[in-house]
Amino acid sequence: MIEANLDDQTGEGLGYVMDQLLTAGAYDVFFTPIQMKKNRPATKLTVLGNVQAKAELTKLILSETSTIGVRYQTWHRTIMKRHFITVETPYGPVQFKVATYDDVTKKTPEYADCAKLAQRFHIPLRTVYQAATVAAAQLDEEE
Predict the structure, then answer these.
(1) Distance between CA 64 and CA 107 in Å, rounded?
(2) Which pLDDT tens digit goes with each residue over 71-103?
(3) Which residues cross the membrane (predicted)?
(4) For residue 1, with 0-12 CB atoms within 10 Å meaning exposed, 13-18 middle and 19 or more buried, which class applies?
(5) What's the structural domain count of the chain?
(6) Do residue 87 and residue 67 come from a single domain?
(7) I want to staple 91 with a disulfide (CB 3.0 to 4.6 A). Which of 21, 68, 117, 120 is the partner?
(8) Which of 20, 19, 46 is nearest to 31 (CA)?
(9) Which of 107, 95, 109, 92 is nearest to 140 (CA)?
(10) b/e map of 107-143 (b: 16 or more CB within 10 Å)?
(11) Is 97 left (phi over 0), alpha (psi -120 to 50) or beta?
(12) Crossing angle for the helix pair 111-121 and 125-142, to the nearest 10 degrees
């Protein structure tokens, strides 16, 4: 985790550096509103990434933001195994991300697939999500 406090960075600059960091391989980038000394409102930039990418991500932060320093912290993490399945709905196919860890399984419909079908058929997004969830549950029953 790499962090920096920014008290003089524009919103446009924050959006730009987020895109740059994600393109450079950051796992995640997020902003937290904070108060700094003299009650100045500021933004804490947090970047999560692989330790091998630390130098590149640090250079991006130092070159693309107003900060003159960053903090590091190393964390360990557990990642669920992931794979994809495709289910057929009345509106078309929807991919699901299936994540597993021991006896825990999570299935999540891919937003982009659902949004595309909702737009194509001029129906609410939640309608496609519901149809996809029903189709995935039927697959579970068949197994």
Answers:
(1) 37
(2) 999 999 899 999 999 999 999 999 999 999 999
(3) none
(4) middle
(5) 2
(6) no
(7) 117
(8) 46
(9) 107
(10) bebeeebbeebbeeeeeeeebbbebbbebbeeeeeee
(11) beta
(12) 120
Are 64 and 97 members of one domain? no
The neighbour count for residue 15, using CB atoms within 10 Å, is 11
Q: Which residues contact 128 (CB under 8 A, 6 or more apart)?
A: 89, 91, 94, 109, 114, 115, 117, 118, 121
CATH code assigned at 122: 3.10.20
Whether the model pTM is above 0.90: no
Out of 16, 40, 72, a domain closes at: 72
Tokens 């419909």: give the residue.
109
Answer whether 41's CB lies under 8 Å from 7's CB: yes
Q: What is the pLDDT of residues 44-78, one digit of tens each?
A: 999 999 999 999 999 999 999 999 999 999 999 89
Q: What are the Cα distances from residue 112, in Å, to 63, 108, 115, 117, 142?
A: 33, 12, 5, 9, 26
Cα R_g (the chain), whole angstroms: 20
Q: What's the token pair of residue 114?
A: 């659902």
